[in-house]
Every structure is written in structure tokens, then in C-alpha cells.
Design a protein that fits this description.
Blueprint lengths: L5 H8 L2 H10 L4 E2 H8 L3 H13 L3 E6 L2 E6 L3 H15 L2
Antiparallel strand pairs: 1-3, 2-3
């Protein structure tokens, strides 16, 4: 990931819209237009949510002409599951 902390990553995922975006990206790279339909938000609000996810190191963006494709970071879910599992062990 890009140096973000586990707290920043979890905070990014705490929003239902961002969670729906991550769920969609688990299926592979998606265009922003598809993510807008999935998330049921306006393009400006989608842009905000995607920025938060990028800053947390959870997704990457690649321009394709006038379109932008988003992809889940390869190690994002592995890192998050490790953090969550580690926190669960400490809380016992």
C-alpha cells in the first residue's frame, strides 16, 4: 500500500458507498461510470469517494483515453484482513 496506516484504511472502508465500491472492484477493474451506477451517487460525489480510497492505498486509477479505470490494490484485502485478525487477537 502507499504508506497509509491501518486506521486510515479502515476509516476509508467505514463508509457504505466506499464499501460498495470495494465490493465491486473485487470482481476486477471497473470504469468510473460503472462504479457510479453501483454506488448510486453523482459523479462529483463518486470522485470524492474514489479519492479517499486512493489516498488510503486501497485502489489505483489508470486513465484510458477520457475514461478512468479503477482497480483494487493487489495486497489491499490481504493487508486489511491481517490487521483485523491481529486486532481481534489482541482484544481477547
Amino acid at each position: 500500500m502507499n504508506g497509509s496506516t491501518p486506521v486510515e484504511e479502515l476509516r476509508a472502508l467505514a463508509d457504505p458507498v466506499r464499501w460498495s465500491i470495494i465490493e465491486e472492484l473485487r470482481g476486477g477493474t471497473r470504469c468510473a461510470c460503472v462504479l457510479a451506477e453501483v454506488a448510486h451517487v453523482s459523479p462529483p460525489l463518486l470522485s470524492h469517494h474514489l479519492k479517499v480510497l486512493r489516498q488510503a492505498g486501497l485502489v489505483t486509477a489508470a486513465k484510458r483515453g477520457r475514461w478512468v479505470d479503477y482497480t483494487l490494490e493487489d495486497d489491499a484485502l490481504v493487508t486489511l484482513s491481517t490487521v483485523v485478525a491481529g486486532g481481534a487477537r489482541r482484544s481477547r
